[in-house]
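Field reference: sequence -> structure
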Amino acid sequence: MYPVMKGSNAGLALGSVAFRALEAVFYIVGVVSLLSLLTLGSSSQQRELPIVRRFRLSAILLVSVRDHAALVAVFAFCLGAFMYYYLFFQSRLIPRWLSGFGIVAIILMNGGLRVVLVQR
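Structure field:
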């Protein structure tokens, strides 16, 4: 999308690509932390009881890392998508009502994200 959108506003086009890349990085961090639980679980079966408690604490930490990475990824998605929809609205590459609908949806999604953060 960057080559198409840079004609309208190069800064917003680059920003949207950067936020979408940031989103991908945090999703990868979340997946890697969950995959590392498999290794942690298999190695905890071969240890004594006191070490298992440490493994349990490590597992809780890895799940927490995954949860926080997912929240940051959704926030990065919201910013990147908002930039895309705003560029679509400006450039009129798609109908304005459709890009306006996307902007409203992203604003509502960001509001839902705030509710999730407040509940924590």
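Note: The chain has a mean pLDDT of 85.
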